[in-house]
Amino acid sequence: MQKNGTKSQGNGRTPVFDPTRQVSIALDAILPQQFHDHGGKLSGCQRLYLAILHDSLSLLLTPPRPTQRPADRLKVDEALEWVRSENTRWPASFHNVCTALGLAPEYLRPRILALRQQVVHGAAARPRLHRGAQAGNGSGKIGG
Q1: Is the pTM higher than 0.70?
Q2: Which of 36, 34, 25 is nearest to 112 (CA)?
Q3: Which residues pair with 23 in a beta bridge?
């Protein structure tokens, strides 16, 4: 257990986990220490920017489903376009969000895009289950 209450994976990286999406991917680009400057307080703007970044990561790092609605695919496409854009004029651009959070966009962008490729290719490689079939241990949980 680390000082900030998160569990370490043993490799020095902090897991990013959204239990509603069943996605767990270790990112070494965002460290808890980056958000604990100034007594651990983020400004309202920084909290908003962190929520925008989190939402985009959740969209991009969730494996695509064959039954995904067009509206959901559009959200993923918009998140991908947002990460790829090098626009600095828009206050909530990827570059400005990262900068406001103390993250280096030129470091984070290629890593997010590489993770997205892994998620997409991993989803394409998984076998499709027929309706009513159960995967894994039948508990409905991934890994347990």
Answers
A1: no
A2: 25
A3: 18
Residue 1, judged by CB atoms within 10 A of its CB (0-12, 13-18, 19+), counts as exposed
Residue type, 57: L
Q: Which residues contact 135 (CB under 8 A, 6 or more apart)?
A: 129
Q: Are 16 and 98 in contact (CB under 8 A)?
A: no
Q: Summarize pLDDT for 95-133 with one digit per residue, the tens.
A: 999 999 999 999 999 999 999 999 998 865 555 555 554
Residue 144: CB atoms within 10 Å: 7
Distance CA 127, CA 84 (A): 30
Q: Which two tokens stand for residue 85?
A: 């854009």
Q: Give the type of residue at 119.
A: V
Name the burial class of residue 53, with classes exposed (0-12), middle (13-18) and buried (19+) by CB atoms within 10 angstroms of its CB. buried
